[in-house]
Amino acid sequence: MNNKYTIAAFDFDDTITKKCTFVDIIIYSKGLLNFLLGMSTLLPDVILYKMGFLSNYLVKKKMFTKFFAGQTIEDFKLLCNEYSTNKIDEMILTKAKNQIEWHKSKGHKLVIVTASIEDWIKPWAINNGFDDVLSTKVQIKNGILTGDFENKNCYGKEKVRRFLEKYPDRSNYYLYAYGDSDGDKDLLRYADESLYNYKKFNKK
């Protein structure tokens, strides 16, 4: 490790935070009743997802379309900045905060690798000393959210691909990785050291 720099790669939802920010920002912006009414129309899709017939990416895209399609990017960014500033700090896991601070104290590069949306993750990440955010980007046409995404779901093998796209010089850095779900396991296996729910990850 003497000639290498070190990167710590964190998943975001349920790894750094106590709950899913995607659901939370919908409730924050639309209200609980409107969220429940909207989700009632997507119930068949949720059931198909739970049964394994739909991917989490497709369900997430349907939810994003339902609640945000047609909004101007200016209004969306204002919402995301407000949510990131006012809400995310209160849902940070103590274990995550301690681990982040430890990496900071060692001078390690901090990266978030998440399937969540860049616009509400990045403001918090910048304010908390992260160097980079690899995440989902929203699609915009003529200043309006289409309800679709610009890139693939940053989940599973895509997390590794996106990470290596940004940090291809693998022999030059030592990698720590943190995650909480099946979608993180490919990156956890790829890392030199990794924790799954803050317990040592078995790579076998």
Mean pLDDT rating: 95
The strands making up the biggest β-sheet line up spatially as 3-2-1-6-7-8
Give the termini distance in whole angstroms. Answer: 23 Å
What percent of residues adopt helix (DSSP H or I)?
A: 40-55%
The total count of strands amounts to 8
Shape, principal axes of CA atoms: globular
Give the amount of beta strand, in percent. 15-25%
- Tally of helical segments: 9
In the predicted model, the low-confidence regions spanning at least 5 consecutive residues are: none
**Which structural class best describes the helix and strand composition?**
alpha/beta
Largest sheet, in brief, is:
6 strands, mixed
Radius of gyration: 17 Å
**Which sequence of SSEs, written as H and E, runs from N to C?**
EHHHHHHEHEEEHEHEE
What does this protein look like?
The protein has nine helices and eight strands. Strands 3-2-1-6-7-8 form a six-stranded mixed β-sheet, with helices on both faces. A two-stranded antiparallel ribbon has the order 4-5. Strand 7 (193-196) and strand 8 form a beta hairpin. The protein is α/β, with parallel strands linked by helices and 204 residues long. The two termini are 23 Å apart. Helices cover 46% and strands 21% of the residues.
